[in-house]
Amino acid sequence: MHLIDDLGEEVPLDREPGRVVSLVPSLTEAVERTVPGVLVAATDYCTHPPSLNVARVGGSKYPRVDDVLGLRPDLVLANSEENRPEDVERLRADGIPVWVTEAPSTVLTALASLRRVLTQAFRVSEPEWLVAAEQAWANPRTHRATALVPVWRKPWVVLGRDTFAGDVLHRLGVSTVYSAHTDRYPRPKLDELRAKFTDGSADLLVLPDEPYYFTDDDGPDWFPGVTYVLVSGRYLTWYGPSLVDAHAELSAALDRVLG
Fold it and tell me: Where, by residue number, does the polypeptide cross the bilayer (predicted)?
């Protein structure tokens, strides 16, 4: 049976995969929650579910491909933004089916992608958590703030156009100041970032704890006098079962600073 992944590539699967390697933390959590026991390996950054006990094959950007090949998986799960094309091609050249998901730009497209891979590749019914997540995120709140959202420092990297995290915040009533930028992840200088608050373009600083671990020191130290909120990077950037709790958790964090 030849399936088609998000990028339009064939995924030759003749049966439900029983040995799966996931190179994407969000997909790892979604698969283990929906089809427990099929994962044989995941990346070092696949931290959820916490009980996951499988082999580790390095990071998403630079997985140990030889280790993956040695496991002879029925299927490898990858992502167009997190994983390198040359690693995907090497796996495919060795006869390993690889399903590549597209980097989602919205919550609903992320959930649609998960639905496809779970129901088609694994041939399971639509999971209840996915339906619950769609219902939780279906209706965006009215606008109440414009945020600057760094995701890295040294150098500064911020949310730009068409990002999943940006849509998460949009659905919670918070727009992002670089949403019209030509890049998905712009790298402005610190002076430019600070100017967004002094000129009124932004009125909120959102600091996630991953991929860069921002803390209470980063707000006052780099943006003195600016209203800021610390949020879970997993809730902000992961798509999967975490989205069920993310709406309430992120809403509560924003409510504490926005009222």
Answer: none
